[in-house]
Amino acid sequence: MPLSRSTNRSCQSLPKRWRLLGLGIAAVLLVVDWFLPPLPTPRFLERWPDAGTGFTPWKPLLAGVDHARANFSSPRPMKCHVVRIDLADTNVSLLARPPAPAAPFETDGEYVSSFVRSQAVQVAINTTPFAPDRVVPGRPVDLQGLAVSQGQRFSEAAGNLDSLVITRDNQARLVPAGGKTADAWNGAGGFLITLRHGQNVAEKLQPEPATVVGLSADGRRMFWLVVDGRQPGYSEGATPAETAEMLLSLGATEALNMDGGGSSTLACAGGWKGVRVLNRPYHWVWSGLERPVGAALGVRSQPPR
Q1: Which has fewest Cβ within 10 Å: 65, 80, 143, 251?
Q2: What are phi and psi of 267, to 5 degrees?
Q3: How far is CA 267 from CA 70, 125, 195, 218, in A?
Q4: Do 30 and 57 belong to one domain?
C-alpha cells in the first residue's frame, strides 16, 4: 500500500515537472532571442505583389518617409524594397552609426537592427564596405571607406571608391573618389556611382544582393533600395545597372552602390522586439538571418501618419 501511494504521487508530480521544464526552456529561448537579430518571417507567410507589376504605390512609414516594394520575375526573380526620404521635411533627420572602439580598427560589428534599437532611429540600412567579410557582433571591423557620424570622422574615404556626404543641414550628394568630403556631418562609403545626372554608368557585374542609395536631381529626395539575392527561385539579386534603372524609374538621377551581399539589410522600428527586418538578407547558415556590419545609416522622424 505505501508503495502504491508513492507511485501515485510520482505520477501526479511528473506533469508538473514537465510543465516547469517547458516554462524554463521557453524563458531561456525568449532571453536568447532578445539578444539575437529578429528571426525572418517564414516565406509562406510573406505577402508580395504579383510578379512583374513593378513597384507598389508609396506607403507612408513616417512623416517624410515612404516605402514601396517590387516582385520582379524577369530577367530573374528579384524581391526589392525601397524607402524614399524627403530631406526637406523638417521632421526628418539622418544619423550614421557612431563608432564603437575596437582596436586595432575603427569600429566593431553590429546588426543593423541593433543600430535601430540602440540609436532610436526608425529605419536603417547598411552602408560602408568592411573587412573581414564574416564578423560577429562586438569584434573589430576595418571599414573600407568613409565613415562620419554627427561630425565625428573615424574612417577616411577610400582612394578608389565613391562616397555619400550628408551635411549638417540635410543636404546630400554623391562624391567621386578623390572628391571633397570635409563638410560631411554624416557620411558613408560605397563602391562606385552607378547613376550620374540621369545616365546609367554602372559597371557590368553579376547579379548580387544589393544596397543602393539614390538622390533626386534637386537633392530633395533620398532613396534606399535593397534587393535580396543568392536565394534561388525566391530572389536572385540584381546587377548594378539594373538597380540604377530601378532608381531612375522611381525618380532618382544619382545612385551609389553600397556594401551588398550578405550585408544588404533594411530594418525598421516595430514588432515585439522593437525592431524588424523588412528584407530577407542572404546568410550562409540560414536564409533571412542578419549579418553584422561595420556601418549603417538611419533616419528619424515623427510617429507614423
Answers
A1: 251
A2: -120, 150
A3: 17, 7, 25, 27
A4: no
The number of distinct structural domains making up the chain is 2
Strand ranges inside 19-171, DSSP E:
59-62, 65-72, 78-86, 93-96, 107-108, 123-126, 130-131, 140-143, 147-149, 152-155, 163-166
Residues 24, 75 share a domain: no
- Cα distances from 8 to residues 20, 130, 304, in angstroms, run 19, 63, 59
Spatial separation of the C-alpha atoms in residues 290 and 265, rounded to whole Å: 7
Compute the Cα dihedral for 191, 126, 189, 82 and give only its sign: positive
Specify whether 136 is located in the same domain as 167: yes
pLDDT in tens, 177-217: 999 999 999 999 999 999 999 999 999 999 999 999 999 99
- Domain membership of residue 305 (yes or no) is no
Q: Name residue, grid cell 553579376.
A: 206
Distances (CA, A) of 29 to 17, 32, 245: 18, 5, 44
* 54-113 residue pLDDT tens: 999 999 999 999 999 999 999 999 999 999 999 999 999 999 999 998 778 999 999 999
CB neighbours of 141 closer than 8 A, spacing ≥ 6?
102, 105, 106, 107, 108, 109, 130, 131, 132, 135, 293, 294
Domain hosting 188: range is 41-300
Q: Does residue 187 share a domain with residue 232?
A: yes
Selection from 110, 111, 125, 117 nearest residue 67 by Cα: 125
